[in-house]
Structure formats: C-alpha cells, structure tokens
C-alpha cells in the first residue's frame, strides 16, 4: 500500500470543517425560517338572520364565551338590499351589491334574458355570479384549499372554479353533519386553510314568528347550543386555539303586521308591470313603454313607501349601477310590507329594508390567535370582512369596497398594510438567512484557503529536502 502524502491531511481537515459548518448553518437557517409563522386557518360561520341584539334576548353562554375569548363588534352595517344572497356575496367579495352583481334574491338579467330565483332554487347559472370572484377562488388560485358547507354560491362553478371540497346545498343536512365535514377537511392530510359554514336559522323562524315573538327565545337558545357544539368539536380536534373563527350573519329581522300593508293594486294596474323581487324592497319591471305611467302612479302613492326610478336611487345605497337592478324600486319603511293586495301572503318577520336601520344589522364575533381577547369594537362595515379574511389567509385581495385599516384594531398586532405583519416576519427571516449564508461562505473560504496554503507549504518543504541515498 502506498503511503499517504502529508499534503493530503489539511485537505481532509478542510472538508471535515466544511461539513461541520454546513450542518451548523442548516440548523440555524431552519431556526431562522421558523420565525416566520405559518398562515393560520380561518373558519367563517353564518347564522342566517341572526340580529345583532339576539344575544341579549335570552341566555347565550356560548356566544358570550366566544366574546370573552375574542372580539365583539356591536354594529355591522351590511349592504343594501338587506337580503340573503346580496349580503352573503358581499362578505366573500368585499363589494357592494351593484358591483358584485348578486343584487337580490330574485333577479332578471335583460341581456341574458334569464332569471335567478332563491325561492325556486334556480341559482346555479354561473353568469349571474361572475361579475366578482369570491374569496375561495382567489385562495385556491394562490395554492391553498377551501371547504364549504352550504354557504350560498359555493356549489356554483364560478370562473371555472368550485371549492376544493363542498357540500351541494341541501337544507335537510343537519348542522352537526356540516360541522363534521369541515373538521374532516381541516384535519385531513391535505388540509384546507379556509372553511365556510352556513346555517339557515334563525332566519326561517324569524320570518314565521317575527323577531319580537317570545317564542324566538327558544330559537335563539338553539343557535347558541349549536355554536357551543361547534366550539366543542373544534376543541376535540385541537383546532379551537389554532384557527381563527368568525361568526356573523347576513342581516337582521324586523317585525311586520297585517295592519301595515301597502297594496299596489290600489294605485296601479298589475297589467302594466312585473314584480321581480319582493317586499319590502320591490323590484318593478314596467311593460314596454309603461315606465312613466307606472312610476307616476306609485311615486306618491303611500306615505310609508318611497319609489325611485333607477337613476334616482340614493348614492348611499350603492345600488343603481348594475343592469340587473330594475327600472323602478319601491322601498317600504321599517315594519311595512308591499303586496299587490291583501290576498297575497306576507311574512310576520322580514328584512330587506334600508341598511341604516339597526334591526337590519347582523351579529359579528371573532376568536382565534389573530384576534384580541375580551375586546369590543363599536362599528364596522360588512365590506371590511373581505380584506380582513385575505389578510388572515395571507392572500392578495382583489379590488373591493372594504378597508383592512378600518378593522385592524381587532387584531392582536396592528397591521401597517394588507399583509404587513407577514411581510415583517419574512424580512427578518430572509435577513437572518442571508446573514448565515455570508457567514458560512466566509468560514468555508477561510478554511479552504488555509488548507491550500498549508498544502503548498508542505509540498515546498518536501521538494527542498535531499533525496535519500541507497
């Protein structure tokens, strides 16, 4: 075996040092990157028609538990008209109804010559939804996964996209089954980061009983138990302290009466128009050439009904710049109903009125690692939820009518910009990572240069010594 040359020893020392330094570098780099927290997940919950003050009607321990462990916003101004589909789409787009295009529960598009009807469950035509992109579409296009349990619009392919997981709408599916699906999706091998949960109550019973009926107390208590069930299941799955949970609604509810009916048949022939969307904000489509006649007949017909031509609708409603908004809009005062005559049915409780009326405002609670605890905020707009959701999910918001700055005070850390807190952590991580790369490179170069210098010195010494003689 040939003897090892002494000049090779420093090279081995250099390589050994290289691997040691590389190992240390990788450990430090991993630690540095861990300073950037993973984006938390979000669960958005809507109890349809849950008015802001229902939590004070009866004992609601689970709502108050969430309030103690999170944030409660006292007044949420939703969008006009204060109906289910327009407001649910606002929550996930941040847009006024005139901008996102779901302007009512019942719509007619004169360009498509097609109708959209919640009452007839004719809501799956994608063209009605595609004036906007809901947040689950953006979330998935940025590489994440979404799951939806019955949220309005989530079983419609919008811009060619469905939620990663979704439940086709079926009112008969129990609340508990919807919760189970969402927890499965949040805890799967490829988990969702955004979930949406919808429940039809207390809206349905609010319509039947009226919000002032004492029997509503039992309905509110049942919703509180359902929220308690959701919290319990999230705790069992070890999700309650991990994900951000937002509980809200689309609108409130107001009490109606058979003594407060406005009968259109008393003022105008029904042969002159069609009713597209119904009380208390009635969308009227006059027959061709009959616009002025219908408007003049209704304009001052009743002291508790305000009638607008489309172009006259007040700017504060943000409700005239869309082709699906009909030529005439009749708006009843709070508690009044617009019918054709008294033989028409009407709802004891209703919504759809002016969005400045307190009875139209929904609940809003938020709890989770991103939110302050036991905190109260006085006011926000429903449009502000969308940029907040985008911030929590770490995705880029599309143009919207909301403001993250308007709700940044409910967060644990103040947010300088839409994604400021995340950017700050990223900057720290990148800086530390870059610094470690520089240190590692310097140490390696130093060892390499010293090793080469020692090698050359040894070789020079050997060359200078005389050859051994036999």
UniProtKB/TrEMBL annotation:
Pfam families hit by this protein: Phosphodiest (PF01663)
GO molecular function annotations of the record: NAD+ diphosphatase activity; zinc ion binding
UniProt entry keywords in alphabetical sequence: Glycoprotein, Hydrolase, Membrane, Metal-binding, Signal, Transmembrane, Transmembrane helix, Zinc
Compartment(s) of residence: Membrane
One GO CC term, this protein: membrane
TM region(s), chain numbering: 424-445
Membrane topology qualifier: Single-pass membrane protein
Cofactor(s) demanded: Zn(2+)
Signal peptide positions on this chain: 1-34
Family: Belongs to the nucleotide pyrophosphatase/phosphodiesterase family.
Name of the featured protein: Ectonucleotide pyrophosphatase/phosphodiesterase family member 5
Origin organism lineage: Eukaryota, Metazoa, Chordata, Craniata, Vertebrata
Gene this protein is translated from: ENPP5
